Amino acid sequence: MRAAGQPVRARLRDRVAASDPGLLRLTAGLRTAGAIALAVAVLALLGTDVTHLVAGALAAMVATFAIREKQRGQQAVTLALGLPVALASMTLAAVLHSSLLAGDVFFVVLIFCAVYGRRFGDRGTALGLIGFQIYFVSLFVGATVSGLPALYGAVAVAFACSALVRFALVPETPTGVLERLRKAFRARLAQLLSGQLELLGAGPQEVDRALERVREGTARLHETALLIQGRLAEGTTDEAVARLVQRRVADAEIAAERLGLSLLAARGAERADTLALHLPGAPVPSGGRRPVREEETVTLRRDLEALRLLVLHPVGQSAGTALSHLRNRLLGYRDEDNLPDASPAVQDAFRAVGEAARAVLGLRIALGGPQDESDDSPATARSREELDAEDAVLDADEEETEEERSGLRRPTTRAAVQVAVGSTLAMVGGELLSRDRWYWAVLTCWIVFLNTASTGEILVKGYRRLLGTVLGVLAGIVLAGAVGQHTWTAFALVLLFVFAMFYSAPLSYTLMSFFVTAALGLLYTLLHTYSLSVLVLRIEETALGAACGVIAAALVLPVQTDRRTNELLATVLERLGDVTRSAVEQLSGGSPVELLDQARDLDQALADLRAATQPLTHPVTPLRARRETARYVVALLETCAYHARSLAATAELLPTHPSIAADPRLRRAAGRIAHNIETIAAHVTDEHATAGIETGPSIASLLGRAVPGTPRYGRVTDRVLRHLQRLDEGVAGLARPLGVPVKASDGSAKASGG
Asked: What letter would DSSP give residue 749?
């Protein structure tokens, strides 16, 4: 039974790791709910009344979620500084409680300072958040000067409980988080391979669903790679180890996506590239018209299953004879002589399996150190030698310094002014609705500005918060009637909702708002202030606060969605041009640069653009043409980013890989791509630009002489040429939706439809 149960437990662990990379959401939920539970328990043992129990619970929640630093020492300092900030905020709230005008003026000043404090990094953001939220808690529980000593005690207990849970009960270290993220990457890679297996065997009726699963798996793997990138600096003590892990994760990510594309081509697509993976509605090859023979399909399925087993095998645990045999067979496909007698597309699929197996081997070595080499075949031994040579190159480059990228910092002064104006409007309107609950409108206005940068983003966030609030009010009505005056049952449900709120926050803002509102309904019940009119008032105040936020964003130093997306689009194009130029320069024989860092900068810029286009791609937007254009442009940029990442990874192999050598002719062949990227970027930043992109013969033909038949060694490989060709086509494809003129090969120009 134990032997049978172990695989089930392992599968369950892998599924949890893949659904919550690094267990970041689970940790956030457990830590916040645990801090609240501990604070309530301690305060109850001290004989505190319900009002102070609620104050302590809310203060514990604030003290826990406000701290965002990754290093434990920095977290401790911020938490220690947060306590006097919280006490000062509560004192001022109580003192100014009787003076309406002075209290309102101070609240607006506090809001401005809290938002402006973001410019000072995570600590400034945390202290500003603590000051604002504790002031709000004081209003919520009706803090008075005479009641301050008891409230001080409740807040102090809450901060102490938060520290105990953070550092002792639910500890989280950068090293531990990075280790869990590595496991999540392997689990998501295995899930992607399962999706590719499904795609390979899917018939005409199942192919759309299988392709969607591959799309989703590719995006989730990329998301985990970005999370690992963001944790490498804190999670490793050795910069060389961080660079090595970064490199191996990038290799595995690119190899997995290339494998998916090769399987698509093997199914019978006339042409398969990342457009088939990213563009909605892209044609998919029919399962009934694929050129793969049955025996080749069986072999491919067997090899994909073997590759999946290699991925899931625990790192640091020596592989048995059977796994070593599987690894040797898969790595053997890297030799042309071992490929089956099949069509070029099918051969390329087997070749991609071999390259993916090499990437998995490199990932295992980077994460688990040296491994047993006694069962290595010649192909496996050569792969290890290549990986060792690449590691040596990385060690030699360790002295390179990292550039500071402060230019991406969001302008905090404008946001602070906008929030202050919006909060003032919300305060005035909220007091007209209710003299006692006006602060809900201010809170909503504050929240819709968090992590947003344009009017459209604020509008979408306000809509989602209002929807979640309405649903939460309906749930609160049901729960308040069911719980009644059962204090501990209500607190237990509040803890459950707080956990769900933090667990669901990265997934759905609407769902998070639902849990917040449902929990507040229970807190009102505990404070004996619950009524249907209070919950209806909550909806009204929420709608008012969201409207005031949108009005302030639209009228005070506005940043229109078009302007914001154009700025981010220009940044993406700039990063794309940097990666392409640097990779081509290195492939042409130029001096090496840190290509993977540039590729990750491109990925981050693309993620920012994708988030900023949400108002344009939201289902409720009435501008359907703009929605489709935004989706199309982002999809094309994802395609270009994939090929640019692949070029960067190939260029970094240059010093060690026997089939890749510098070719100076590439500078001339890639010049058109660089020119077109600059031209499109100029049109994005300047609507009066008139230059057009260039089209013409294929990239391979620009090398100056025929490539087929020439030796692979000493020449650029076919893979490099394919990536350059697809990148050239993807960049040219951006011209039509962005309205950039196109110059034909004869020099004439034709306008692109917008």
From this structure: E
pTM, rounded to two decimals: 0.77
**Residue showing tokens 């936020």:** 549
Q: How many residues does the chain have?
A: 754
Taking CB atoms within 8 Å and a gap of at least 24, the contacts of 706-713 are 712/659, 713/658, 713/659, 713/661
d(CA 690, CA 683): 8
3-state helix, strand, coil in the chain (%, to 5): 75, 0, 25
8 A C-beta contact, residue 380 and residue 327: yes
Contact 85, 130 (CB under 8 A): yes
Tokens standing for 422? Answer: 């919006």
Question: Which residue in this structure is represented by tokens 């009017």?
Answer: 455
Beta bridge pairs of residue 742:
693, 750
The rounded distance, in Å, linking the Cα atoms of 549 and 415 is: 11
- Taking residue 687's Cβ as centre, other Cβ atoms within 10 Å add up to 8
**Which of 280, 262, 279 is CA-nearest to residue 271?**
262
What's the mean per-residue pLDDT of the chain? 81
Going by C-alpha positions, the residue among 420, 354, 424 that lies closest to residue 382 is: 354
Residue bearing the bigger pLDDT, 163 or 440: 163
Amino acid type, 581: R
- For 717, the token pair is 């490989």
The pLDDT of 9-20, averaged and rounded, is 74
Torsion of CA 547, 549, 554, 558, to 10 degrees: -170
pLDDT of residue 415: 81
For the CA atoms of 243, 249, 250, 254, the dihedral, rounded to the nearest 10 degrees, stands at 160
10 Å CB burial of residue 402 (0-12, 13-18, 19+) is exposed
Which tokens belong to 390?
């690449």
User: Which one, of 312, 320, 317, 324, lies nearest residue 368 by Cα?
Assistant: 317
Q: How would you write 412-470 as a 3-class SS string?
A: HHHHHHHHHHHHHHHHHHHHHHCCCCCHHHHHHHHHHHCCCCCHHHHHHHHHHHHHHHH
Q: Which residues contact 163 (CB under 8 A, 6 or more apart)?
A: 63, 76, 79
538, two tokens: 């909550």
Q: How far is CA 82 from CA 32, 335, 566, in A?
A: 16, 61, 38
Q: In the structure encoding, which two tokens stand for residue 457, read together?
A: 């983003």
1 falls in which pLDDT band (50, 70, 90)? very low
What gap in Å lies between CA 337 and CA 340, rounded to an integer?
8
The label of the residue with tokens 């095998």 reads 313
d(CA 321, CA 445): 62
Phi, psi dihedrals of residue 693, rounded to the nearest 5°: -80, 160
Helices and strands in the chain, H and E counts: 28, 3
Q: What digits encode the pLDDT tens for the residues 221-269?
A: 888 888 888 788 777 767 777 888 888 888 888 888 889 888 888 876 4
Round to whole Å and give the CA distance between 276 and 621: 26
How far is 647 from 644, CA to CA, in rounded Å? 5
Q: What span, in angstroms and rounded, lies between the C-alpha atoms of 303 and 346?
A: 13
- Dist CA 428 CA 419 (whole Å): 14
Residues 6+ away with beta carbon under 8 Å from 721: 699, 700, 707
- The stretches of 505-560 forming alpha helices (DSSP H) are 509-526, 532-555
Sequence-ordered strand ranges (E) for 59-154: none
pLDDT, tens digit, 9 for 90 and up, residues 47-94: 999 889 999 999 999 999 999 888 889 999 999 999 999 999 999 999
Residue 4 DSSP code: H
Alpha helices in 239-320 (DSSP H): 239-267, 274-278, 294-312
Question: Looking up tokens 């999809």, which residue turns up?
Answer: 635
Give the end-to-end CA distance of the chain in Å, rounded to a whole number: 64
